[in-house]
Amino acid sequence: MVILAALFGALSPFCLCGIIPLVVGLLAAGVPLAPVMAFWIVSSLMVTDVYQ
Length: 52
What we know:
Strand content: under 5%
Largest sheet: none
Order of helices and strands: HHH
Radius of gyration: 10 Å
Helix content: over 70%
């Protein structure tokens, strides 16, 4: 599940402002913390890499 979340985070088109509400929504929906953190970290790294 963590690997799938990381892959989704790498391919997601969300900006840094859009990731935080999505993460909060995933946690409120009952998604375990580990996949949410994997999504958050990878998507933040990919967005940062694109903007540099």
